[in-house]
């Protein structure tokens, strides 16, 4: 299955990391039923995140960064 890994930046507190999948590069979904966080609890670098597509049909993955408001 398709897998993506990336580094989160904990010092930047106003970002949300949203992993999304697509079959066609046009329609994207971050539905938890379609994307699974498989990051091991004992990662050497705690910034590392690893996600896997839940369906074999998903051909593309991306990480979308969303700026949030810190209050």
Kindly list the characteristics that best describe this protein:
71 residues; two-stranded antiparallel sheet; single chain; mainly beta; 0% helix; 5 strands; three-stranded antiparallel β-sheet
Task: Please describe what this structure looks like.
It is a single chain. The protein is mainly β. It has no helices and 5 strands. The strands form 2 sheets. A 3-stranded antiparallel sheet has the order 1-4-3, with no helix packed on it. It has a two-stranded antiparallel sheet with strand order 2-5. The radius of gyration is 13 Å and the shape is flat.
Note the topology:
Blueprint: E1 3-7, E2 15-22, E3 35-37, E4 48-53, E5 60-67
Antiparallel strand pairs: 1-4, 2-5, 3-4
Helix content: under 10%
DSSP strand content: 35-45%
* Morphology call: flat
Across the major sheet, the strand order is: 1-4-3
Structural class computed from helices and strand pairing: mainly beta
Tell me the radius of gyration: 13 Å
